[in-house]
Every structure is written in C-alpha cells, then in structure tokens.
Amino acid sequence: xxxxxxxxxxxxxxxxxxxxxxxxxxxxxxxxxxxxxxxxxxxxxxxxxxxxxxxxxxxxxxxxxxxxxxxxxxxxxxxxxxxxxxxxxxxxxxxxxxxxxxxxxxxxxxxxxxxxxxxxxxxxxxxxxxxxxxxxxxxxxxxxxxxxxxxxxxxxxxxxxxxxxxxxxxxxxxxxxxxxxxxxxxxxxxxxxxxxxxxxxxxxxxxxxxxxxxxxxxxxxxxxxxxxxxxxxxxxxxxxxxxxxxxxxxxxxxxxxxxxxxxxxxxxxxxxxxxxxxxxxxxxxxxxxxxxxxxxxxxxxxxxxxxxxxxxxxxxxxxxxxxxxxxxxxxxxxxxxxxxxxxxxxxxxxxxxxxxxx
Amino acid sequence: xxxxxxxxxxxxxxxxxxxxxxxxxxxxxxxxxxxxxxxxxxxxxxxxxxxxxxxxxxxxxxxxxxxxxxxxxxxxxxxxxxxxxxxxxxxxxxxxxxxxxxxxxxxxxxxxxxxxxxxxxxxxxxxxxxxxxxxxxxxxxxxxxxxxxxxxxxxxxxxxxxxxxxxxxxxxxxxxxxxxxxxxxxxxxxxxxxxxxxxxxxxxxxxxxxxxxxxxxxxxxxxxxxxxxxxxxxxxxxxxxxxxxxxxxxxxxxxxxxxxxxxxxxxxxxxxxxxxxxxxxxxxxxxxxxxxxxxxxxxxxxxxxxxxxxxxxxxxxxxxxxxxxxxxxxxxxxxxxxxxxxxxxxxxxxxxxxxxxx
Lengths: 358, 358
Known about the structure:
homodimer
C-alpha cells in the first residue's frame, strides 16, 4: 500500500496532463501513388512538399508515404487505385482519364483556353472547384488542383512543320483533347507514360512529342533527336491533380483534413512558380548551350485548322456529356470577362515592357 | 486511504492518456494589426482566411484575433507595433515603410518591374525570400508575401493627361517609388490611408489618386469624381506583406510555426486569384454600368519621362542603400531571363487569342 499523500501530487500531475489530451494528435499513415517517376521535378517536388508540410503541421503524426510509378508499376492506374482505396490519395492529371469521363479534360486545361492566372481565378472564385466536385464526387473521389505547368510548349518534332501536309501520318505523343485535335489533322496520336518518352522517340515509335516546357524538357534530352521546338497552343495552363479517396478523407480528424487541403493547394501554387522559374532559367540557357534547337511557331494555316477542329470536337463532346457542356460553358463565359482584363492589365503592360530596362 | 487495487486501473488509464499528451496542443492567442479597415476585400479576406486556416489546422487551439485600422487607429503604424511586440503580427505593404528603409520598396513591386507570376517565381525560387529576410530580420521581424493585387491600374484623374504639362502641380495620392517618379515629373505626391481616399478626392485635398484596380476601385466610387481611368505602369505586381515578430514566432511550437507559414503563403496566392477574379468581373460590368468612365493610357512622352525618372531614382537609391542595390540587381538579372520566357509562353499565346472563341 502506498500512502495517499505520496500518491496525490503524482495523480494531480497526471490529471493535468490528461486535460490536454483532449487535443491529442491521432497517428495516421497514408500512401500516395504518383503517375510520375521518383525524380520528376517539379511534379514530384510539389507532392513531396505537400507531404512534408502535412507532417510538420501535424507534429509528425500524419505521415504520407509517396510511391512513384517505378514502385506501383501503373502510371495511369492512379485513378483506379485511389478509387479502390488501394492508395488513400494520388497525384496525376485529370485529362489522362478523359476516356472514363470527357468532363475530366477541361479540369486540366483546354486548347486555346485560359492561362494559369485566369484559370486559378476560375477554379477558386469563378465556380471551377464546384464543377470539379461535380465531376469527381460521384466516383467517391475528392479532387484538388495539383500544380500548374503554366503555358506548355507545342512539342518537339524531327522535321519542320511548314503546313498541314507535314502533319499527315506523323506519329506523336500528345495526350488529352489536344491529341484529338491533332488526330483530326491526320496525326497518329498516342499517350505514353513520362518514363518512356525518350526511348519511344529514339526508337521511332513516335516522330514527335509534346511534354511540358523548357524547364522539364531539356533534362529529358528530346532536343538531341527532335530539334524543332514549337510554341504552345494546346495546354495554356495544365493543372495537375490531387485525388483523395472520399471515405478515407472523411475518416481523418477535422484538423488533419484542413492541413491536407491547405498543403495540397499551397504545393500546387508553388509548383506553378517553380516551373515558371525552371522554364525561365532553361529558356535562357537553351540559346547558349543548345544552339541546334530551332524554335518555331506553327504556320497560320495549321493554327486555323487546329482552332476549327477544336471547336468541332468541343461541340461533339458537349452533345455527348452534359457535364462537359456545363464545364465548357462555364469556362467560355468566364473567359469572355477575364481575357479582357488580362489584356488591359498584364498584356498591354508587357507590350510596352517586353525588353526589361538595363 | 484508498486500496491500491482500486487505484491501479485509474492510474493506468491516466498513464495511457499521458502518453498521448506528448502531442498535446498548446493554446495560443495572437493579435494581428491590419493597415486596412475591417471590410476591405480582398485584402481582409486574405487575412481572415489565413487566421481561419490556422484555427482549423490547430483544432481551435491557435487563434489569431484581427484588429482593423478603426480599432488600433494607426494604419501605417503596423510595422512599429509588430516590431515592439504590441501585436504578434501584422498585414500591410512593405513600400509604405520605404522611409525607414528604401530596400523595403522592391519587396512590394517596382515601376516597370515584374508581373505577378514572374515575381512569385523570383520570391520562392529566384532568391527573393532570402533578400526579404535580409531586409527584415535585422529588425526582429519575419516577412512573408501577403497577397498580390496583380497589375494595378494607373489611377483616377479629374482631367485628361495629354502631356507632361498636365502633371505639373497636380496633387496625387500615389505611394512608394511610383510616387517619387511622379514627384520628379512635377506632381505633388502624398500617401493617404485607404479609409480616407474618397473624402480626400471629394474635398479636393488631392486631384488624382491610384488605388488598386477595377475590382477594388469601383466600390470606392472614385469614378463619380474623377472619370479618367489610366492603365498601369507603376505597380505591375503589388505584393502585400505579413509581418511577424520574430521572438513571438520562435516561442510557437514548431507545428504551429509550420501552420502559420503555410496559411500566410496560401492566403497570399489566393488573394492574387481573388483580385484577378474581382477585377475581371468589375471590368466587364464597368463598360455597361459606368459608361462615363474614360479608360486612357498615358501618352508616350509621359511614359518615356516616367521610365527616365525611374532609372535615375533607382541609380540614386542604389548609391544610398547597398541592400536596395542588391535587391534591384537580383530583380534586374532575374527579369533578363524570366521576361523572355513570359514573352514566348503567355504573351505570344495571348497575342493569338485576345478574343476568346465563342
């Protein structure tokens, strides 16, 4: 028997500590599957930053393990694996799954669509997030912006494209709606996981490909095989995607939900800034270090044919999917207003300041 | 005396709870002082969103009370109050304090400087945050981006500016470096707290003012008195500022520090998107609802004189402050690369797509 007066201080100390324990942090371990390989910067940087923010904010209690495509072996299976709960969350791009639902396409980007600042305004203040939810929630999935690449370059070609006839029969890796547009123009279109791009181009499985922009492309070495580098039209603001299994999300404590959402959103914006930076640096180096790269813009007749095919395909997809129609109409209506603002603000300003002062 | 065998289960339960208590959440109450009044959207939205994210992520344990300028009565005293620890943190703009240190100016924006996407790339990936730290940490302050307005309009004028002679003797509210530039051009320049702008214009204390852009300006009613609305040159990417007292920050638990930093950064990016949205909406409505507003661009001779005065003032300030020189050189060097990328990506794309498709 221990005398009560010796026990009491110890007991009181324990009680005091116990009062705080109402706020105790639950230990949570999650797994995330990426479409990308383990070192694909800045896509992977965004995911790693997101996970490390969550870990820090939770005092080390909410830990997200990241599996790259070399681990799970299914780059385009991320959607299904998260839906099935095999992974609690994933990082990919919604337009990779347009075969499942064409309405996923405009939640990434659209040919001749919005720029990144316009699109973030639409997502968060112009009704975009609500439409994203309408597309993904019936699948038991929560979806969030996963990082913007900014305006993508039009891709690498072995030969120059001087007119529509040069596209005929070309084999090209180009995903999403832009691939359908090129397909209408006679291109044989395919999507290939990021990890196999260089080999496919080298072996002649494809004659051309688009990837992202100088920041990411140069490191892939495409310019060694396909020196014609075209400016962009097809992905003016490619937004990657975080997918979260809804049931798993609902099982999280509310404060962990808040941390996860904040970390996803912040890492996405940061990726936009990081890729802008990487592209600027690479664009500058390119001119000096890789003088064999020939920067080109598609000829007017090609651009005109792309726009026409794009409009036709949009009209068809609107017929096919009421949700695609609803999302496109929201974006078209939004662009009517936002593009005029972009013109009077950044565009007109840049026109007078294309060469920064020394 | 209580028998040990009756105490034991109770004691063990307390011990189990005690184990969790290592992760217990400390209750923290902070106060934030804003330069703005209590309803100034989107500036105040950013601050409120930041505070509410911190509160949610901490499970209600870290609460930040927000005091607007009508409470603390010192809109431009935010810097001093945070430095003194009277408030743990503040929300303002660094260029309001350029009288204390001219190096604070380019951490907000510079006339003829970077656009918002360029500037975020510089802040987070191009060395900007390190320079911000170099400017503020010696003052015992931590500084973070506090929300970007995007490209600001050049302001509201009672009369049209057809040449340099129309600026002579004009009384204008325009803060920061741009004010110094206008001062060189013969304008009598002043800064006035946001809450007093309309009255000052109405009473003729000033003849002209710049505030932000259509999203915020229209609600202020300036167009009723000064119908000439000029496009921007002077604040291409005004970044507001979160100031945090360093000692107070260091006293926070590490996970609260992480929450606070994440919430500040996320709310800043969000404010950029929100103001882009508000501006787009207001710009569209303006044409229909306020046909008396006359949108103008400053004449070429005025722009040329502004650029010249700006370059001279930059050269002087570089002499005066080695840190200003270091920051400006970093920005100038950065712009050399990033502006070329902006041109080949968004700018050239927009040139072909100024009128969105129907």
